[in-house]
Amino acid sequence: MFSGLSENLSAVLQRLSGQGVLTEEAIKEGLREVRRVLLEADVSYELTRDFVERVREQAVGLPKIKAVRPGQQLVKIVHDELVRLLGEEKVPVGFASIPPTVVLLVGLQGSGKTTTAAKLAYRLKREQKAPFLVAADVYRPAAEEQLRQLAEKVQVGVYGPADRRTGDHEDVVELVQEGLVAARKAKARSVIVDTAGRLQIDDAMMAELEQIKDAVKPHEVLLVADGMTGQDAVRIASGFNDGVGVTGVILTKLDGDARGGAALSMRGVTGAPIKYVGVGEGVDALEPFDPVRMAGRILQRGDVVGLVERAQDAVSVEDAERLARKATSKKGMDLEDFLSAMRQMQKMGPLKNLLGMLPGMNPKMLKQVNADPKRIKYVEAIILSMTPEERKKPKVLNGSRRARIARGAGRPVSEVNQLVKQFEQMQKMMKKGNRGGFPPMMQQFSR
Questions:
Q1: Strand 274-278's sheet: what is its strand order?
Q2: CATH code for 307-445?
Q3: CATH fold for the domain made of 101-299
Q4: Which of 54, 64, 97, 252 could crosslink 278 through cysteines, CB 3.0-4.6 Å?
């Protein structure tokens, strides 16, 4: 997430923080580099200029603190200004005192609105907000069917053109009003309206959105925007904000090679908070946006709180305690336990995303990991091809058994040998008191 921005900005600040004395010339040169990094990350020129100016005003004449180097103080100033730029505090979706709460999703075609509607429904369902979906995109072929399939995964109700018995099937305002009636009948506490997008902002699109907004009086109008959007981010955000009044932003595709400028620019231009970020393809891959934690991740300070929250969602207390007992016992973990731990880790999200939340884990290190999701499946296939006895006692795995396991898993014998060898290394590390025995096993997941 924000790998380019994170890597370049951290490199500049690392050079400055290592200096015992910060001269005005060094600050000026450093901030010139910061400006370049932000512009290359597609942050708008105006926001970049204001950001650098605020940092400069605070950096010049930094008070001398005995325990803290001036360079480290500068890093703190940049961190605080990043937090300010990103929104200062986490802002959740506002809910109506009398349900249902209506959330209108708007955005360009291809920004991921339909998928985001299902992701938001999944999150609100977990928060006991009883969501309901309305398929209001009557123009894109199969848009309604896509939403229905996603709604089935999330197990929430949906209303769309196929449910209409009378009236004009392309009368979107009427469709959304009927959807609200259906949501109330279903006793929904929140309604997410998936509106149509266009390839570009146009008058017809804005007029339709305004009519829907006037008719249903949504509590939230959330702009769904592609996190990989470049300099167009400012134009897109301004267009929707001027047209329908955006109350929040959801950034999608931040698990890819997003440069980060879109996030900074959209928040700065609209004044509307970023409420969620999409970090994967699954319906569970939507996270609340926290400016403080995001600034920490951009500056490679990690997001341990976010990591713990993911673990709490993915791993049951009973399973965690059982694995902890096994890991600290004389006998130690076996391959059955490792398989269980690996499956729990998968629930937490892609390995690269998890490693990126650890303090000090920079993008260069993540590139070396080169995690391949297929490798996890291969390891799982190898372990599942073993008998229960073999999983509990890997020492019984002789040549013929390994050949049989390889055939059963459809993988070469060399991969079986590698898995067993690295598992033995992990056990030795744990017996020596090093509970961080999983890193050797992580080599199984990358080439």
A1: 157-159, 131-136, 190-195, 101-106, 220-226, 248-252, 274-278, 286-288
A2: 1.10.260.30
A3: Rossmann fold (3.40.50)
A4: 252
